[in-house]
Amino acid sequence: MKKNKVRGLVSIAMLSSIAYILMFLNFPVPPFPAFLKIDFSDVPALIGAIVLGPMAGVLIELMKNVLDYFIKGSETGVPVGHIANFLAGILYILPTYYVYNKLKSKKGMTVALVLGTTIMAVVMSVLNYLIILPAYTFFLNMPAMSGPEVKEYIVAGILPFNLIKGVAMSVLFMILFTKLGTWLNKQAASFRLN
User: Fold this and answer.
1) In the structure, what pLDDT confidence band is assigned to residue 193 with cuts at 50, 70 and 90?
2) What is the pLDDT of residues 28-54, one digit of tens each?
3) What is the CATH number of the domain that holds 20?
4) Exposed/middle/buried for 123, CB within 10 Å: 0-12, 13-18, 19+?
5) What is the pLDDT of residues 174-190, one digit of tens each?
6) I want to staple 39 with a disulfide (CB 3.0 to 4.6 A). Which of 26, 65, 91, 138 is the partner?
């Protein structure tokens, strides 16, 4: 039991480190604003959730963002972007994990990834409207956008960007899952048995 707990903690630390490194390999997607960048750092968190359970995925998301904030800092002085990245990550991995757990198959994983992408994109649009964009404008001392401007910004920028990001992560994850799915399920079973 103790050996399995140590193995789990080491796995979480390793996947968090990989996720943190993947945050550096980001790229903007034209025509979206330059600060909206795609990275694949949620993939290790999703692997961690599938193998070790949903709390492991949440911890990996948290640790990669804490590391990034303390090492790189934030343009606002507070971790608004890191909090947004954390929320987007858990909104992507948790629905994917729970749906896949019910439909254990490649088709089930595809359904789970589509649902995770959709939930992440829609909920992040709402959170951007209510909390994240107002926090950015406040902490950067920028003039606040009007309600219609914010809605247009979200519908034309945030929502489609998050859909594209979710699809990109899902495609990469499905490639990995096709090759490693049996091994991931075996690892998950070994953690549940011990």
Assistant:
1) low
2) 888 887 778 899 999 999 999 998 999
3) 1.10.1760.20
4) middle
5) 999 888 877 777 777 77
6) 26
- Identify the domain containing residue 31 by its residue range: 2-193
HSE, CB side, 13 Å, CA atoms: give it for residue 191: 20
pLDDT over 70 at 192, yes or no: no
Name the E strands within the chain.
27-28, 37-38
Q: Are 121 and 163 in contact (CB under 8 A)?
A: yes
Question: Helices (H), strands (E): how many in the chain?
Answer: 8, 2
pLDDT for res 178? 86
Task: Give the H/E segment covering residue 55.
Answer: helix 54-72
Strand partners, 27: 38
Is-contact 56 12, C-beta < 8 A? Answer: yes
